[in-house]
Amino acid sequence: SGRGLAAALAGWQLSRRPMRGAGPVLLLVLAVALGTVAIGQGASWSRSQDDQADFRTGAPIRVQASGTPGQGRTDLVAGVPGVAEVAPAARSEVSLSGDRTATVLALDTSRAAGLLLMRPDLADESPRGLLSGMAPQQPSKGATIPAGTARLTLAATLAVPGLDPAHVGSRSADVTITVEDRWGSPYRLAAGSLTADGREHTLGMDVAAGPLT
């Protein structure tokens, strides 16, 4: 056939003049080698960018809030159409000895286990298995607040041992209540000042709607 004849003629020419074909062959080898290196470098660079992005965000999507997070902010994010699951997290810098600093990351490990982005070859276990030992073994203590509660009131008494309530004067204490939403995020609410007169006083504070403890 024509193709067989062309291949035979090319082989015959190379056998008669081997040095004449050395240049094109060398260029072909170099082109193939450079192409292979470029493909490997491109794949390595793409994987590196993906790994760095996963490490910086930690989850498929990270919403960074400005200022001090207020009550109900996580519920607002969870209520966005298309959001399947959320997990609140807090990041802070702490000072160490020797003028060093460290970043502390706080998150609910029971919720975040299914959201973390981690390559399978970085650990012998899945993220859920790694974080299962860090989850609290007991539920949070406290009374459950009904959903939809807008304001809390409580009765409290403060007395100074050995002091006559009639002579308490201006002795008082600022009362702070800690509430926790259904995502495990704690909030400290100022309930007002409590006079140390030994009598019962009613304190109140506004809260966001949602299950709290």
Key attributes of the depicted protein:
213 residues; two-stranded antiparallel sheet; alpha+beta
**What number of structural domains do the residues give?**
3
How large, in whole angstroms, is the Cα Rg?
34 Å
- The whole-number mean of residue pLDDT values reads 77
Order of helices and strands: HHHEEHHEEEE
Q: How many helices in DSSP terms?
A: 5
What is the count of β-strands?
6
Q: What is the first-to-last residue Cα distance?
A: 87 Å
Characterize the structure shown.
The chain has 213 residues and is an alpha+beta fold. It has three domains: 2-57; 73-132, no CATH class; 151-206, no CATH class. 31% of the residues lie in helices and 23% in strands. The strands form three sheets. Strands 1-2 form a two-stranded antiparallel sheet. The protein has a two-stranded antiparallel ribbon with strand order 3-6. The protein is rod-shaped and about 120 Å long.
